[in-house]
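Hi U.,

Before I forget, here's the chain from the pilot set. I'm dumping it here mostly so it's searchable later in email.
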Amino acid sequence: MALSRDWVGARASVVLTLAVGVLSVVTGIANIGVGAGADFQLFGVVVPGVVQQVTAFTGTLTGFVLLVSAFGLQRRLRAAWYLTIVLFPITAVQGVLQSSQLSLPLIALSVLALAIVGLNVRAFDRELSLSTSQIASLAALGGAQAYGTAGAFALRDEFKDVNTLLDAFYFSLVTGSTVGYGDITPSSAVGKLFALSVLLVTVSSFAVVLGVVFTPLIEARFSKALGRMTEEQLDVLDNHVLVLGFGDLTEPILEELSTQADVLVVVDDEERARRLSERGYTVLTDDPSDEEAQRRGKVDVAQAVVAATNNDAEDALTILTARQLNPEVTIVAAATQRENINKLKRAGADTVISPATLGAHFLAESALGKEGAETLEERLLGGDDGGDIESAAAAVEEVDSDDAAEQSSDDAAEQSSGDTSRDDDSTA
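Structure:
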């Protein structure tokens, strides 16, 4: 179950969309100069060579749009899902029309990605909601480009080489992006004044849009520095282990889990969250027992929940909340005091272990000269047999068998000694 969700889940959809986007850009750039003017056959139909160049160029643009769409999928936007579903067949067709060996991986990956993303339609259920500043910036950009295009076309006699609407739009876009090729220039005072106005309006609109676009990225950097997660990062969590709270027992647990699964740690201490984030752990700064915090931590799609702090009461409240939000999730807990094991199980934990009691038992067994505890510890911590529960269980059975054989031998010796004593008494 865990493997299938890793390969076909929401995160796989985002990764595949990014991969198709990058591959479409690379393939398009590689094929732009291929087959200049040379016709070719495709499924028995002669296709003009210009089609190959056009599809290579449009394929590059489609790849960039897919990269933007992947960002939308990361935020679980339904609009991004629709856009991606439409673009995948287009990239596949573009790959076919480019008709080169470089296009084969693009075609195959587009078909695979279409199937995976299509299966995850329910995962992308968030409606696109733009803030007032985003709507205003986009409107300003569109209005600035419309002003530059219409004005340049209306004043085309005042400009060199402006003859069509395409020329006018080209002038407006090049001016606003501050590229300035210099091939279209004003030839009169009126044209120069208009060019100055276009420069001010379009450059300002571009600056506003770029600021709005890069703001989430800047917030993400600050959030990481402070040990916090953005909503976009939380949205792609799936099939992870949710560690609720942090204590002395949590540190070795994180070291074990981080090499085998995706882990999200929820702690309410910002300084501790920052330190954990600096060490590479994914951290959410919030109250581990709070319902909203666990919802943000995606407890509904987590494969397991771990509660192992030094406070059994807080762990019990955390477990109760997690069990209420996801009745099917596996919950494991560590009890500081042995008498709290049953209480944590009643709270909803599936497995409760008392490390202090277990360690005390191992030490007591070793103090009495028994070797079973040491053998079990070695196998659990990664001995020659693999360091897993199965090998440890085999060690326990082996030790139990040896103990049983030894006890049986002692009983037999004792019985034999008793029989000899009775024989001596009878002889006497």
